[in-house]
Amino acid sequence: MIIVKNLRYKYPKNKDYVIDGVSFEIREGEIFGFLGPSGAGKSTTQKILIKLLTGFEGEITYQGRSLSSYTNEFYQDIGVSFEMPISFSKLTALENLRFFQRLYRKTVDLEPLLRRVGLWEDRNKKAGEYSKGMKIRLNFVRALLNDPKFLFLDEPTNGVDPANARIMKDMILEFKRRGGTVFLTSHIMGDVDELCDRVAFIAGGKLREEGSPRDLKLKYGKRTIRVEYRENDELHTKILPMEEIKNPDFFKLLQEKEIETLHSGETTLAEIFIKVTGVRLRD
Amino acid sequence: MTNLTTLIRGEFSRLNKYGLFKANLVILLVWIFLVWFMESEALLRFIPLIFLMDSVMMTILLVGATLFYEKKEHTINSLMVTPVTENEYLMSKIITNVLNSLLTVFIISLAVYLLKGVTYKYWLVIPAVTLVSVVHTLIGIRLSYSAKDFTSLLINYMAYVFIFFLPSLFAQLNLVDQAVARFFILLPPEASGLLITSGFTVTEPWKIVFSSLYLALLSILLFRFVVKPQFIAYVMKETGV
Ligand SMILES: Nc1ncnc2c1ncn2[C@@H]1O[C@H](COP(=O)(O)OP(=O)(O)OP(=O)(O)O)[C@@H](O)[C@H]1O
Ligand SMILES: [Mg+2]
């Protein structure tokens, strides 16, 4: 749906490129996670993709056409939530949403959305009097109010309590199930793991790794099995290669010992994150 | 409803909610109070001054204040990712300010008529105030571009008033040679004052025509070559969203 080729960008006043030759593709109907250390250029990339930042080098196509050839009609189809929650502080939540709603051809019913994220009761409160988490949920609703095809979410669940984060994640997954496409950045690896079909890691202006969370975990993990068991009141750990899983000795171990934990050696996204971005950042 | 009407309605609702409309209204009441005590002779010299101040200074201040709030609350970024175009956004600012200035004209004129029975050439005053308000909305937007915060906007604004009003003042006080003073019509406030005053006195027609054309041309040039091209850079100058 979006193809980015050799994207380079530097802010007008700076001389260094924030994004320095990045290529990736966001496929229709997937949730694409864009990950990287703080200051790596994730938000910058999002702002380029939503046509807020112009003057980039390289090529970006959206549904087969160059992004720059789109008029403002482009925005009929996309929903954006920024890193920081944005609203007119002296207008109520509902007034904020209604104002934005009138700018779109197609809109959705606000009540079910607001009820879902738990803001309906507070809809007539001024946005400026909302708590941080409430503001973030309000922004999430605003991103959805034009029934977009494509969502750009910059750290959507950052600062939201676990219960509400759960609801928002469910809504993102439902959005995808209805055929929507999502570009998402987040530092919460659990969310990324749960939501994203594919992720890309950016660091030092370059893309360091790309793939589905599962493939990456296999690639960076060890093909091992780690068993912890108790014997004579002592904890023992045994690590054996995945190939030996069908080995009778392994079965015997499982049958005879008091097993406490059993893990395959694939790694976590957080560890991959550190591995692919952290080390390279220093060069 | 088109985007433009939505934006203009939004402007008015925010002017109201952010207390700017109230400030405007208080000033209006002060004018009406002053007008109350004036004789019709003085009145006809004072009213154009009210209209001039309103369509020059209030316009710059109001557009500056709204831009300042939008910048502070980052709402301008949200607007730029909706189907609203830059033209629509800028036009909504211009039209809102024109409507505001015309509202002042309407209220003052009505008050003056009811209180004193004084009338004047509305058909000249209305287009004059409209034109002046358009130019100064654009000047106000330009001044906001180079202001870091509201204080620096006020400083820019004072510098503008100082630089462009002082020559006219000097001319009035006969501190400037008449031959030189002739060219002051090229200063936007001077041309503005001339146009608005034409509704109250007898003015040479060529001056009205010249000032109108001049301000209209200035508006077009400002919009086309200054305000619009620098708009995106202004939106993007802000960080942290
Ligand atoms: N408006 C701006 N002008 C100049 N430089 C900027 C601007 N916005 C961001 N930068 C710089 O660009 C780089 C990338 O910033 P960006 O906000 O894209 O990072 P990020 O990956 O989103 O980080 P985080 O995870 O902290 O949100 C940083 O070095 C930042 O200082
Ligand atoms: Mg960011």
Please tell me about this protein's structure.
The complex is a heterodimer of chains A (283) and B (241). Chain A starts with a strand and ends with a helix. Chain A folds into two domains: 2-217, Rossmann fold; 222-265. Chain A has helices at 42-49, 93-101, 110-116, 132-144, 162-177, 189-195, 213-220, 248-256, 269-281; strands spanning 2-9, 19-26, 31-35, 57-62, 65-66, 78-81, 150-154, 181-185, 198-203, 206-211, 224-231, 234-241, 258-264. Chain A is globular, with a radius of gyration of 23 Å. Helices cover 32% and strands 28% of the residues of chain A. In chain A, helix 5 links the parallel strand 7 (150-154) and strand 8. A six-stranded mixed sheet of chain A has the order 6-7-8-3-9-10, sandwiched between helices. In chain A, strands 2-1-4-5 form a four-stranded antiparallel sheet, with helices on one face. The longest helix of chain A is centred in the middle third of the chain and has 16 residues, at 162-177. With 283 residues, chain A is an alpha/beta fold. Chain B is mainly alpha-helical and 241 residues long. Chain B has one domain (2-239). Chain B is 80% helix and 0% strand. Chain B is built from eleven helices and no strands. In chain B, helix 3 (40-72) runs parallel beside helix 6 (122-145) and helix 9 (188-197) crosses helix 10. The longest helix of chain B is centred in the first third of the chain and has 33 residues, at 40-72. Chain B is globular. In chain B, 34% of the residues are buried. The A-B interface holds A 12, 43, 50-54, 71-73, 75-76, 78, 80, 82-84, 86-91, 95, 99-100, 102-105, 142 and B 1, 3, 6, 10, 13-14, 17-18, 73-75, 77-78, 80-85, 232-233, 235-236, 240-241. The site of adenosine-5'-triphosphate has 12 residues of chain A, from helix 1.
